[in-house]
Amino acid sequence: MSLSNDDRYALYHYMRLSRAIEDGAWALAGQGRMVGRLYTGHGQEAIPVGCATALAADDVMAPMYRDMGAHLVRGMEPWEIFAQYMGKRGSSNAGKDSGLHMGDMKRGIIGMISVLPDSLPVAVGVALAFRLRDEARVAMTFFGEGSTSTGAWHEAVNMAAVLDVPLVMICENNGWALSTPAEREFRGATIAERASAYGIAGARVDGNDVEAVHRTAREAVERARSGGGPTLIECVTMRMRGHSIIDPAEYVPPEQLAAWAVRDPIDRLRERLVADGLWDDGREAAMLAEHKGIVDAAIDRAAAMEDPHPQDVYEGVFASDGQTTDTATSDGSTTTGAGA
Ligand SMILES: Cc1ncc(C[n+]2csc(CCOP(=O)(O)OP(=O)(O)O)c2C)c(N)n1
Ligand SMILES: [Mg+2]
User: Fold this and answer.
1) Ligand 1 center to residue 39 CA distance, Å?
2) Which of 209, 194, 312 is nearest to 265 (CA)?
3) Is residue 177 within 6 Å of ligand 1 at its C-beta?
4) Among the atoms of ligand 1, which is closest to the Cα of residue 115?
5) Among 112, 147, 260, which is best to mutate for testing ligand 1, by the most ligand atoms less than 8 A from CB?
6) Is any atom of ligand 1 closer than 6 Å to the C-beta of 38?
7) In angstroms, what CA-CA distances link 303 with 28, 32, 197, 298, 326?
8) Does 317 have pLDDT greater than 90?
9) What is the pLDDT of residues 19-40, one digit of tens each?
10) Cβ count within 10 A of residue 107
């Protein structure tokens, strides 16, 4: 399965833009203009980009808080990401959550669920719906290696396997779950080897090699779409910054960071493109300038948006399908009636 030059440029563009947005957001946080926390995807960009580009337009994806590139691939605009970061009224969840805990069903993106790894059982349900409706569609979801030690993870993988649903499960093994190193999270050598215990396909891939990630994800998406069932893919990578912006991550050994710094996924693809005669300093400078313009314009547009209104705090929170529900009011009392 070979990638065209345009495919490779697109992988490079999405990884670079993702990092430019994160750097812009980091600077914004330093100016006190962010609402809530900022999580990092720095060094892990190959995984969301390589995987999301393997999906078709009507497939559905449930990303996690490090997967900015996956949102971009699905068409989320940078200004929408900054509107979310700034907690604006017109953002994905109207200022009610922060970070990349955002989604857009029109683009097939299920918003991140904070309780880990609960996006996974939801994705199993989405994939099951596709199978029951006889639709040739695929669901994909992402989780860290830390979440694979929870009961919900094992139940969901088992259910996906037994029901043989069209699902691709991406584990981003970045070596750490907050301050807990991988060797204190599980005993087996790999996450991928668990696939055979559940009777499904599994693969382990260098998570900092975007082309390898993409090829592995594409095979899994094709397997799922053609009735071959779920796949568990372990992408081996490293979290290069703290868990979130408030975490200095002093617990990470500097030599571990140094060993991974030379395997940066963006640098690696650029070096390959240069070696193949497809990239040079001029193209690099033009892309950096283009991305700076995109990020600056996105921040300005988001900053000019309206802030949420306190009276809207319950909007979009309760059922609105006409069913009778208990509806909390802004003064804290409860009314019973048609949902708001
Ligand atoms: C059930 C549950 N327990 C704890 C947390 C708090 N928490 C948020 S992120 C995180 C670390 C997750 O590590 P991992 O799954 O490896 O993902 P990573 O952050 O490394 O990408 C924890 C413990 C949570 N969100 N949900
Ligand atoms: Mg982790």
Assistant:
1) 11
2) 209
3) yes
4) 26
5) 147
6) no
7) 11, 12, 50, 8, 35
8) no
9) 999 999 999 999 999 988 899 9
10) 14
Residue 234 in contact with ligand 1 by CB distance below 6 A: no
Q: How confident is the model at residue 321 (pLDDT cuts 50, 70, 90)?
A: low
Asked whether 145 and 191 are in contact (CB, 8 A), the reply is yes
Tens-digit pLDDT profile for residues 184-230:
999 999 999 999 999 999 999 999 999 999 999 999 999 999 999 99
| CATH top-level class of 5-308 | alpha beta
Closest-lying ligand 1 atom to the alpha carbon of residue 65: 21
> What is the per-residue pLDDT for 130?
98
- Centre of ligand 2 to C-alpha 92, Å, is 26
What is the pLDDT, as a whole number, of residue 320?
A: 72
Residue 34 CB coordination number (10 Å): 20
- Does 41 sit in the ligand 1 pocket, CB within 6 Å? no
Question: 69 near 290, Cβ under 8 Å?
Answer: no
State the average pLDDT over residues 147-153: 98
Predicted pLDDT at 2: 87
Distance 182 CA to ligand 1 centre (A): 12
Whole-number pLDDT of residue 334: 39
Q: Is the CB of 176 under 6 A from ligand 1?
A: yes
Q: Does the C-beta of 196 come closer than 6 Å to ligand 1?
A: no
* Span 124-135, pLDDT tens digits: 999 999 999 999
More confident residue, 128 or 318: 128
State CA 162 to chain mean position distance. 26
Residue in the block written with tokens 């900015």: 68
* Rounded CA separation 283/266 (Å): 14
- Whole-number Å distance, alpha carbon 40 to ligand 1 midpoint, is 13
Q: Where are the domains of the chain?
A: 5-308, 311-340
Ligand showing the shortest atom-to-Cα distance for residue 236: 2
Mean pLDDT, rounded, for 260-278: 98
Q: What's the CA gap between 293 and 94, in Å, rounded?
A: 25
The whole-angstrom separation of Cα 166 and Cα 201 is 12
Q: Give the ligand with the smallest distance to the CA of 41.
A: 1
